[in-house]
């Protein structure tokens, strides 16, 4: 028996462990100080009432022989897929219900989708990066190349004609930078993918935060149906981080090497995935109902207001940042040329505020810092006041 040696190539990531350790040490040394966490990557507000009611009703169904449900369909129940297709339609994107696969979340799909691609494909990710794209492909033994997102391109890396990539992960609005691609920029990526016979895995986990005319889906762009797969999640859209539900869209016309990628993914899911539970799918469908879409806006607006508080303070301080407008993340340049960890320590020691050092997300995160809007309004305001008086 041999273990998968590719695991030896994973770079250990102690980012959140180190953040927790340093924060705990500070708390133990300064019990009188109230620490405020602006590094939270999880939602904090509860599910919308209509979603909980739908989930309760789903549980009730399981109590009776006539309404009991066993294994769900691998790709999700039709009424959920219809509801998701209707959601796409509400922002002007045509996606057929039978192109949608309901899943237990975008993280699994980001990591599992490469199962349908050969090992010798080159994977391109933008740097800084959501680490799952990198680690999942290292485990599978694929070569990774990086496209730099930096201040020059406003943390929106663009394709380079001289580089050959086969699988491209794009995340917009981006975690960790909060930056969102415009339609023209996505068009350039689609053209690159079509020219190179590549496939884009487009992570739209934060699309619900988009507040300007940035595309909510890559399928808003011409040609994307021939080169892109889209992943999305109810985690940040509707607070499903603990409930678990997401979806992936694979257009029927997307083919490579004589194969339908939709058919390959169906085969993969049918082999390794047994679907999402009935109560959770009932809850997911409720998110996309008329009332559900209205109710989830309350939480999204709450987080948006926090993001606005943080962005306004950085504007007043004249600090460069991306995000905050179309995303729950604010990606700020560390002041006075400080390194990410140096600024982390400075903020913790002098303001008792915790954020996430950008270098944990890649080379181009050095000198940057991620703040999030998932905390309470009161704590966010308090933290921002502390930051302002420290950096003024
Ligand atoms: N994609 C991105 C870019 C994320 O930031 C996250 C979660 O933080 C996910 C996917 C995971 O989503 P899910 O909770 O649906 O697995």
CATH names the topology of the largest domain as: Aspartate Aminotransferase, domain 2
Q: What is the total tally of β strands?
A: 15
Assembly of the depicted chains: single chain
Ends distance: 60 Å
Q: Helix coverage percent of residues?
A: 25-40%
What is the topology?
Layout: H1 15-29, E1 36-37, H2 49-61, H3 78-90, E2 100-103, H4 106-112, E3 122-127, H5 131-139, E4 143-148, E5 167-171, H6 183-196, E6 199-203, E7 228-233, H7 234-238, E8 246-249, E9 255-256, E10 259-260, H8 261-272, H9 278-287, H10 290-317, E11 321-323, E12 329-333, H11 340-351, E13 353-354, E14 356-357, E15 368-372, H12 377-391
Parallel strand pairs: 1-13, 3-4, 3-5, 5-6, 6-7
Antiparallel strand pairs: 2-8, 7-8, 9-10, 11-12, 12-15, 14-15
The structure holds pyridoxal-5'-phosphate (PLP).
Structural commentary:
This protein has 392 residues and is an alpha/beta fold. It has 2 domains: 5-46 and 293-391, Aspartate Aminotransferase, domain 1 (Alpha-Beta Complex), CATH 3.90.1150.10; 49-291, Type I PLP-dependent aspartate aminotransferase-like (Major domain) (Aspartate Aminotransferase, domain 2, 3-Layer(aba) Sandwich), CATH 3.40.640.10. The protein has 12 helices and 15 strands. The chain has a 7-stranded mixed beta sheet, with helices on both faces. α2 runs antiparallel to α9 and α10 (290-317) runs parallel beside α12. The chain starts with 14 loop residues before the first helix and ends with a helix. 47% of the residues are buried. The model has no long low-confidence stretch (mean pLDDT 97). Pyridoxal-5'-phosphate binds at residues 41, 105-107, 110, 130, 171, 175, 203, 205, 233, 235, 241, 246.
